[in-house]
Amino acid sequence: MLEDFFFTLQFLYTDAAKGFTVPVVMGVLYLGQKYDVPEVTGVCAAYLRTNIYVSTVVEIYYAAKLFDLPELEAAAMAFMLK
């Protein structure tokens, strides 16, 4: 969780999303939603949309449902239906 907080602060101060991984982005997405920071949520959703793989699709779909991100949910569902 501390790593997630670090990456959230890094993004807020630099507008850069460097060193993200899917597990870290999930934590940052949670913080962006919790503290109502749409810029963070948008960057996380965009990152996840470009990193949908067999190993991550279920986790990404679940996060999209949990955080009410319909575009990300649709992208994950489309990947699952391929």
Task: Output the keywords.
globular; single chain; mainly alpha; Potassium Channel Kv1.1, Chain A
Question: What can you tell me about this protein's structure?
Answer:
The protein is 72% helix and 0% strand. The N and C termini lie far apart (33 Å). By secondary structure, the protein is an all-alpha fold. The protein has one domain: Potassium Channel Kv1.1, Chain A (2-Layer Sandwich). The longest helix is centred in the N-terminal third of the chain and has 13 residues, at 2-14. It is globular. It has five helices and no strands. α1 (2-14) packs across α2 and α2 packs antiparallel against α3 (38-49).
The first-to-last residue Cα distance is: 33 Å
Strand content: under 5%
Number of strands: 0
Low-confidence stretches: none
Give the helix proportion (percent range): over 70%
- Give the total of domains: 1
Shape: globular
Helix tally equals: 5
Rg, Å, rounded: 12 Å
Structural class: mainly alpha
The H-level CATH homologous superfamily, spelled out, is: Potassium Channel Kv1.1, Chain A
Q: Main beta sheet: strand number and arrangement?
A: none
Average pLDDT rating: 90
CATH class membership? Alpha Beta
